[in-house]
Design goal:
The protein is about 35% helix and about 15% strand. By secondary structure, the chain is of the alpha/beta class. α1 packs parallel to α11. It binds 1,3-dihydroxyacetonephosphate. 1,3-dihydroxyacetonephosphate binds next to β8.
């Protein structure tokens, strides 16, 4: 299904009452999360290198620190590049100095927002409930949340990976709009370490994520995009993208090199 050239939207509707429609192909995405790195020069260089690389087949999303969203928007105008925020408030407004709402992100051209990144969970003590509330706030404003989940090294060592992923997903499926989210499997032990999950490890986790979601809605589970994040680079990307349940990548450090991000994107395009 992932790589089929035809989606349900391009086939003529099947009138037979007892035949399920063919689900649309999953959206494939490469997202470059700069975290708290970058500057105006990187905005210019990244858009210059990537603007002509993007095709409709795979989304390419730049996720700079919030102060640079306006600059990316200006530079990327008229291209197929999309933009994401790294964080968003769960509220639609109010007395919350230093926060911003999903509506504001939508207004300045963000199509996505990352929620529940392990660095937010660790340094800002964000929990599963708050992450789910942020995801719903995004959906209410017409933004697609990229919901990060993943286990720590200690949890992995104690064979708790499935337990942790299951808990994180249980909270997610309680929001009404969960079928519209993008999930990013980001094992904490792989983030910033240079040790990515192997393709088989990523595939096993992604299949488990889909199986968990299928307990609530099998059709939605088959259609949701599940990205892998954690030390993705231009050398390991193609093997990860070859896995049937890996629909793209959330790239950290390597996205600070526009050339590396371009090569990762090209690997996604060829998968
Ligand atoms: O956290 C990540 C992306 O959100 C992954 O970061 P790295 O690619 O630097 O490991």
């Amino acid at each position: 299904m992932k790589k089929g050239p035809l989606s349900a939207f391009t086939r003529s509707p099947n009138k037979a009452a007892n035949v399920l429609p063919i689900p649309p192909a999953r959206q494939r995405l490469v997202i470059g999360n700069w975290k708290m790195h970058g500057d105006l020069d990187l905005c210019l260089e990244t858009v210059s290198v990537l603007a002509d690389v993007v095709t409709p087949q795979v989304g390419l999303v730049l996720c700079p620190p919030a102060p640079y969203l306006g600059e990316i928007r200006r530079l990327a105008q008229g291209t197929r590049l999309d933009m994401s925020a790294q964080n968003v408030a769960e509220l639609s407004g109010g007395e919350r100095t230093g926060e911003w709402s999903a509506r504001m992100l939508a207004e300045v051209g963000c199509r996505y927002a990352i929620v529940g990144h392990s660095e937010r969970r660790r340094h800002h003590l964000e929990c599963d409930q708050l992450t789910a509330a942020k995801a719903q706030a995004c959906l209410n404003a017409g933004i697609t949340p990229v919901v990060c989940i993943g286990e720590s090294q200690l949890e992995r060592d104690n064979l708790l990976t499935e337990h942790i992923l299951g808990r994180q997903l249980r909270h997610l499926v309680q929001i009404p709009g969960w079928r519209e989210v993008v999930v990013a499997y980001e094992p904490v032990w792989a983030i910033g370490t240079g040790h990515a999950a192997t393709p088989d490890e990523a595939q096993a986790a992604h299949a488990f994520i889909r199986a968990c979601l299928a307990q609530t809605d099998p059709v939605a589970a088959a259609q949701i995009s599940v990205l892998y994040g954690g030390s993705v680079n231009e050398h390991n990307a193609a093997a990860l993208f070859a896995m049937p349940d890996v629909d793209g990548a959330l790239v950290g450090r390597a996205s600070l090199s526009p050339q590396a991000l371009s090569r990762i994107y090209t690997a996604a395009l060829r998968s």
